[in-house]
UniProtKB/TrEMBL annotation:
Domain F-box stretches: 18-63
Organism: Brassica campestris
InterPro entries the record matches: F-box-assoc_dom_typ1, F-box-like_dom_sf, F-box_dom, Kelch-typ_b-propeller, SCF_F-box_component
Pfam families in the cross-refs: F-box, FBA_1
CDD domains in UniProt: F-box_AtFBW1-like
Protein name: F-box domain-containing protein
Domain of life: Eukaryota
Amino acid sequence: MLTSHGARLELLLLKKRLSVKLLLPDDVIELILERLPVMSLLRFKSVSKKWKSTVEDRRFQERQLLCRKQSRGPDFLFMSLQIVYNMWFRSLCWSICHGSCDSLVCLYDTRVGVVVANPATRWYQTFPLARIQHYMSRHGVSVSPSPKLGFGKDKLNGTYKPVFLYNSFGFGLDNVTTCEVFDVSTNAWRYVHPASLYRINAYNNPKIYLSFDLHNQTFQVICKAPIAHVCDPSSVSMCILDNSLFVSENNWSTLEIWSLDCSRGNTKTWKKMCSVGLIKRVSFFRECALLPIAILDKTKLLLEGHECTHQLVMHVLHTINDEILYRSKKPIDSFCYIQSLFSALSN
């Protein structure tokens, strides 16, 4: 039981808290909340209905993500088979879409399913099997290269869309390039008609790079590829760095990286970003398709020894300086990641 003095002190503190609350307008409170870590924001949803509504508001989530980018920069997400930090999925997904979209990551397996997850909030959603996944699971078909999944955002209506692209010849279907897009409104996959006019073939020369408009759902040839002829398709990688498209080629002695310059409107050109000599590098570089995953401070390039060394390497641009940041005994995927509150259901 509180004493008279204790009761007066508690009342005084309560009045003080209320007075502070009255002195802070809602917009000021939002500015403060935008600068807090994701886990703190999730806990603060229980403070009041107003705070819960604020944290779940799409515009607030966008401002929080922007603030996080400007104040802290990226974190690095390491993923191994079923586990993302301490998140376990019922389905075993062996593949991952490289990179993240609004900090959402997409995992998949050709015979199991598609999972979109936010590691910061531990939220995830499992999508129904695509038609090609149904076919491969039912018939036990396995082909190489396997169907590839992309994951992106329709910026006009704000919806997230997984996209499967594959050559149906290997599945006993029509010998054409086939595209499937997941429609959130119907919770089902559907074919895109017409699909790309170019067949999916890793050994095509010269190389053709296509873009897919998630809103209009149409394909377009970007421009002439910077790599004319490729002997080993596994030596070429595509990635998104600083919101730009990059292509890299690892020819054992040199890693060459190009960026797509879109500053001239409809006229797009490839610009060589850098050339990294590999002969004098340590042995973990050799015979591996290195995948660039981040540019830091405009002077450092983060490389992953994808499907080979399971290492994360920091390279200082225009020098011969390298540093191993992380080494794993198990196969891993890693990429840049900004903590956010987004989910695929955000609107």
